[in-house]
Write a structure and sequence with these properties.
The protein has 306 residues and is α/β, with parallel strands linked by helices. The chain is built from 6 helices and 15 strands. Helix 1 packs parallel to helix 3. The protein is globular, with a radius of gyration of 18 Å.
Length: 306
């Protein structure tokens, strides 16, 4: 079947503008005949450490869900993407919803927030295996593509992986040569995580991403973050062959590829460790301090009392 992955340049915290952009790009995919359409992580709000994003979480039956079901029905397609979802218990989760022409077929909550994302939502515990008719779809969101536990819950159990990311860059701080080197490594890891995941699970991957610039505060630091999104929007076959790819420099747009669904034998052996790929020293440090800060910030600012 023809699959499409959307690369989005979101406006942080502007839900109506982002949903309009997603609909326009999804319409482009649907008119081209795509029967699988992947939207990125945080497609409704964008991502950053910003109050406007924390305040823009949507209900499970709100406009983000309406967009997914509308596009799925309009083109008789399988459509998926994740957004900040405020549930009836008052908590916010990064919910990946999968829709077909009949409605929502399943939901996966991202297992662990990444870095400053801890300020925006809490993690989930489901296995991420969603069923649409006879098709078993594995949902994987951003740094879930970096963890062996994601491989273990999907390997041998899915015919297709639908994924989305909002992976940000390392800013060009001083000393400039060092941070430029760290960013080259970061960009390579972002692409490798998306491009190699199919080789671990034995299924094609349709991965949507964000492009564009981002500026926001840095948790517990006087400096502001100024950087960009790595995109890594691509579609791979089950053996890891990259069938289509859109670099971040090309900005917003849609890629297409014919995929063959169905489980296959994994090409790569799952390593006996927590991370599939090395994060690098700076992202590893940010993972820990921003996680601790973000969890405290979340309970003070984001979680709503029932």
């Amino acid at each position: 079947m023809l699959a499409a992955a959307i690369q989005l340049s979101a406006v942080p915290g502007d839900v109506p503008a982002n949903l309009r952009a997603c609909e326009r790009l999804a319409d482009e995919a649907g008119r081209a005949g795509a029967r699988v359409i992947a939207l990125p992580e945080f497609f409704a709000t964008g991502i950053g450490f910003l109050d406007s994003i924390a305040e823009s979480a949507l209900p499970a039956d709100g406009p983000a869900t309406d967009l997914l079901t509308t596009i799925a029905a309009r083109y008789d397609a399988l459509v998926g993407g994740s957004f900040l979802c405020r549930d009836t218990d008052g908590h916010v989760r990064n919910a990946y919803l999968l829709a077909d022409s009949t409605g929502i077929m399943g939901r996966h909550d991202k297992d662990l927030p990444t870095m400053w994302e801890n300020a925006l939502y809490i993690g989930g515990q489901d296995d991420g295996v969603l069923t649409a008719g006879d098709l078993r779809v594995g949902a994987a969101v951003c740094w879930e593509l970096m963890r062996t536990q994601t491989v273990r819950r999907l390997q041998g159990r899915v015919d297709l992986v639908m994924a989305g990311s909002g992976w940000w860059s390392i800013p060009p701080w001083h000393p400039r040569p060092l941070f430029e080197y760290l960013e080259r490594c970061n960009a390579a890891t972002a692409r490798r995580a998306a491009a190699s995941f199919s080789q671990y699970v034995g299924a094609p991957v349709v991965h949507a991403g964000h492009a564009g610039e981002l500026e926001c505060p840095m948790p517990w630091m006087p400096a502001r973050y100024r950087g960009h999104f790595e995109a890594s929007t691509l579609i791979t076959a089950a053996d890891g062959t990259v069938l289509a790819e859109r670099p971040r420099e090309d900005g917003e747009g849609v890629i297409f590829a014919e995929i063959t669904t169905g489980g296959a034998a994994p090409v790569l052996e799952t390593p006996d460790r927590f991370w599939l790929h090395s994060r690098g020293a700076l992202p590893a440090a940010a993972w820990h301090y921003q996680r601790w800060h973000g969890q405290r910030w979340y309970h003070r600012h984001t979680k709503a009392e029932r």
